[in-house]
Specification:
Layout lengths: L3 E3 L6 E3 L1 E4 L8 H14 L3 E3 L7 H12 L4 E6 L4 H15 L4 E6 L5 H7 L5 H10 L3 E7 L5 H11 L4 E5 L2 H4 L2 H17 L2 E5 L3 E4 L11 E3 L3 H12 L4 E4 L7 H9 L7 H11 L14
Parallel strand pairs: 3-4, 3-12, 4-5, 5-6, 6-7, 7-8, 8-9, 9-12
Antiparallel strand pairs: 1-2, 10-11
């Protein structure tokens, strides 16, 4: 059985493993169907996609036509103006064949100029708030990458009552003092306000040495099952955190297996040993490696 927890104040008791449907973006329909059957059998009850994840929303449509009621469905818009964000949400609903998503998220809202546009009177935040009033979504969240995102999420939560946030979280990134402090402050704020805290990049090993080559994930993931298990437990041992799975669907079974047993935290020594053995490095550095 996968662990579950209240997803913030939404009323949904979510599996703490959330299926990252970016994995479907480049798949055939047949392989996408098999992947969705896998997460359904495992008991996952929460799917997270985005308008920008290739064909992901299209691949979800046949599955959702039969299983929509069993899943908390989240998508994202990368648009910042109100009219464009509204249009992208409407396209997402059409692509997935649904009348409503449970959660619409502002995708990777980290750059200050984009933040100002999104929060302007005619920006994406106001448009999504109106879409919620019309029943196109039930909740609104915000996501992001990089070392600045935890502090930007704090700014966003001060400006609007978001229902969820999403940010990178793994042992290597939490080894950076400033980022660890910002994440700690963000988690405290989320706990105080009943905001769901979603994490990404749990099994990241580092940047690809050959970034120009095709890969299933934009970062290089861990692939050794025991190392994956420790990385997954590192996140799930924190009861307030949810873990979004990698876009490399080949690793889904190992992630699901790691989350299905007793969730005990690995020691720092174990995580340091994995970092040494597998060459784990932070995905972001605040400089050249700040953006994806």
């Amino acid at each position: 059985m996968l662990p579950t927890a209240p997803f913030g104040s939404t009323g949904h008791r979510s599996t703490r493993i959330i299926f990252g449907a970016a994995a479907l973006g480049g798949m055939s329909q047949q392989r996408a169907d098999a992947t969705l059957e896998l997460i359904d059998r495992a008991g996952v009850n929460h799917i997270d996609t985005a308008a920008s994840y290739g064909a992901s929303e299209d691949r979800l449509q046949p599955f959702l036509s039969d299983h929509r009621s069993r899943f908390f469905l989240a998508t994202k818009t990368g648009e910042r103006s109100g009219s464009a964000a509204r249009a992208e949400l409407e396209r997402s609903l059409e692509r997935m064949g649904v009348d409503q998503v449970d959660l619409i998220q502002l995708h990777n809202l980290v750059e200050p100029d984009e933040w100002e546009t999104a929060f302007a009177p005619d920006g994406a935040v106001a448009a999504l708030e109106q879409a919620r009033a019309e029943g196109l979504t039930r909740f609104i969240g915000v996501t992001g990458h990089g070392l600045r995102i935890a502090s930007m999420h704090l700014r966003s939560l001060d400006a609007f009552a978001f229902d969820s946030v999403l940010f990178p979280y793994n042992h290597s990134l939490l080894g950076l003092d400033d980022y660890r402090a910002d994440v700690g402050a963000l988690r405290s704020r989320c706990g105080e306000r009943g905001v769901a805290a979603q994490t990404i990049k749990s099994i990241a090993r580092g940047r690809w040495a050959d970034p120009g080559q095709p890969h299933f994930s934009w970062y290089e993931p861990l692939t050794e099952p025991d190392a994956i298990a420790r990385a997954v437990r590192y996140v799930l041992a924190e009861p307030d955190l949810f873990l979004n799975t990698t876009s490399d669907a080949r690793l889904l079974p190992a992630i699901l297996d790691a989350a299905s047993g007793e969730v005990t935290a690995p020691t720092d020594a174990e995580m340091a040993a994995d970092a040494d053995e597998f060459g784990v490095t932070p995905l972001f550095d605040g400089r050249e490696l700040e953006r994806i």
